Amino acid sequence: MTISPKLTLSALSAVIPLLTAGAVPAAARPASSRPQRSADALHALGVTGVLARLETADGVEVARSGVADLATGAVLPRDPYLRIGQHDQDLAALAMAHPAGERTWSYSNTNYVIAGMLIEAVTGRGWDREVADRIARPLGLRRTSTPGTWPFLPSPPATHYFQFEPGGPLVDTTIAVRGLDSGADGSMISTAGDLNTFFRALLGGRLLPSAVLAQMRQLVTLPDGSGYPSGSGGGLGLFHRPLPCGGGYWGHGGNGFGYTVEPAVTGDGRRALTVSMFAGTLDPERAAAHAPAFTDLVDRALCPPGGDR
User: Fold this and answer.
1) Which pTM was predicted?
2) How confident is the model at residue 228 (pLDDT cuts 50, 70, 90)?
3) Digit-coded pLDDT (tens) for 23-72
4) Would you state the pLDDT for residue 30?
5) Distance CA 214, CA 299 (A)
6) Cα 297 from Cα 300, distance rounded (Å)
7) Among 44, 50, 212, 263, whose Cα sits 20 to 30 Å from the Cα of 67?
8) Is it true that the peptide bond before 156 is cis, omega within 30 degrees of 0?
C-alpha cells in the first residue's frame, strides 16, 4: 500500500525529521558484542544511559548500558519514550530580524518553525494534527505523539541529565523547557522502535511518491566543520553519512538538554538503528570524547561482520 499525503514538499520536509513509527513485531534476540561493546564504551565516558535498537530481517537487537535513573539505579527500559526533536533559541520573528547569511549551506531549526506555520496556513489546521492524520496514524505509529506545551514524558522514560559547566553536577533535565521545544522544530515524543519503523517506511517508498522521495534524497555536500564526517550530504529533511564498510545511511537526529537521538537506516532499508544517549554536557573535552564513540556504535551496528550491509 502506498500512502500519498497531500502536503507540499516544504511541509513534508519539516515534519519528516520529527516523526517516528510503530513497533515491529519481531522477537528480541541476545545483544551481540559489537553494539553492546560500543554502548558500554559510551557509558564508560560518563553517559548515564545508552540505548541502541537495531532491526534487521533477523529480528530486533537491543543494547543497553548504564541506568535509567542515577538515584534509583533503575535499569533502562527496552524501548523507552524519547524526545526526538531538536530545540533551538531561534523563533521565526527573532530569526527574521537578522540578515540572511552568505553561506552555501547551514542548518536552521527556524525553517521547521516556518514550515509548521505554512502547514497551518495551507490546511487550516495545526501541523501536529496534520502529522497525526496523514503520517503517524496511517503508519500505525501508536507511541508517537505531539505533546505541545505538556513538559513530561510518558512512562517508561529514561531520566535526562545535563552538565551545564565543566566539572559541574549532572542536572535532571527530563522535564522539557517549553518555549524551546514546543513547536514544529522540537515538540515530538516517540520510541526507538517507532523511529526505526518510520524511517524504513520512508526510505522504502511506503510513505511518499517516488518522485518526492527522490527530491528529498538530492544531496548538497556538507562543508568541513559542519559536525558531519567527510563525504556527508544534506537533503530535504534527510542527511546521508558514509559508512566505513561502504555505502552509507540516512537519517535525521535530534538533541536537547540531556538527550541525543540518532536514527540511521541503510539505503536499502535492510538495517535500521536508533541510538539514544540520555546525558549531555557543555564540557568540550567530554563532548569531544563522546562523538567518536557515538559514531563507532552506529558504524559497528550498520556494518556487520563481513561488510554485508
Assistant:
1) 0.81
2) confident
3) 333 334 444 458 899 999 999 999 999 999 999 988 999 999 999 999 99
4) 45
5) 25
6) 5
7) 263
8) yes
Count of CB atoms situated within 10 Å of the CB of 38: 24
Q: Which of the 8 DSSP states describes residue 180?
A: T
d(CA 276, CA 274): 7
DSSP letter string, 190-213: EEHHHHHHHHHHHHTTSSS-HHHH
Count of CB atoms situated within 10 Å of the CB of 61: 21
| Sole residue written with cell 525529521 | 17
As given in the structure block, the three cell numbers for residue 239 are 542527511
298 vs 201: CA distance, rounded Å: 20
Q: Helix, strand or coil for residue 276?
A: strand
User: Span 260-276, mean pLDDT?
Assistant: 91
The pLDDT assigned to 281 comes to 93
Quick check: 22 and 120 in contact, CB under 8 A?
no
Helices (H) and strands (E) in the chain, counts: 8, 15
Chain centre to alpha carbon of residue 20: 9
Cell of 190: 516517540
Assign residue 242 a region (left: φ > 0; alpha: ψ between -120 and 50; beta: otherwise).
beta
Integer Cα distance of 97 and 103 in angstroms: 18
Residue 104 pairs in a beta bridge with none
CATH domain 9-99+106-302 topology: Beta-lactamase (3.40.710)
pLDDT tier, 306 (very low <50, low <70, confident <90, very high otherwise): low
DSSP 287: H
On whether the CB atoms of residues 236 and 285 are closer than 8 A, the answer is: no
User: What is the Cα 80 distance to its own chain's centre?
Assistant: 14
Q: What percent helix, strand, coil does the chain show, rounded to 5?
A: 30, 20, 50
| Bridge partner residues of 254 (DSSP) | 261
